[in-house]
# Entry
Amino acid sequence: MREDAGAWTYILASARNGTLYTGSARVLATRIQQHREGQIPGFTRKYGVRRLVWFEAHDNVGAAYKREQLIKRWRRAWKLELIERFNPRWEDLFPSIAGFGPPLDQLLRSKLDPFPGRMPGESRAESRAPESPL
# Structure
């Protein structure tokens, strides 16, 4: 996990292939803890979406928020593929980022975003296509 990240984009799930929530935060562990404890009124509390299944580091809040908004426009299948490639067992990553779980490299296939700036299954050339939501 990048210690120097200015902000994070993340996806929470209620269960494997369950309800998904995409968000962004300056301090990832604190924000996820708030979701887990039901401190944030709204969607995650109402639907029990508390399992951190994907996250990505950004240099600043603006970039994290932009990525959040992009992912929210994705089809569900793209979000599922993003999660599957990063965290194929849908492990809850919160204990690891909070410092009381196994190291992330033991849980994840890749510590890097497998789709930097692209949708799952999309080539670099396709990511620049005018019809692309990127």
Summary: The two ends are 25 Å apart (CA to CA). DSSP finds seven helices and three strands in the chain.
